Predict the 3D structure of the following.
Amino acid sequence: MCRNIKPLFNFDPPATDEEIHDAALQFVRKLSGTTRPSKRNEAAFERAVSSIAACARELLDSLETAQPPRNREEEAAKARARSATRFA
């Protein structure tokens, strides 16, 4: 269920708010054990996603590194190669 949570730090261009929201959503889904909350729990679910996304943005904005930014295309190509090797 958490396969969409990927490293978001030190990329050029930086992680978008949508990517951070998607990671937060996957995290809340994993914690709650459901992909869709009931109507009764929907507000709490959305509050949790918003809160975690805000914390993640704060974290990513405050992290520092001496490494050069990674290229998204290159990292995606490496992941595809690992996947092809693993599932070949």
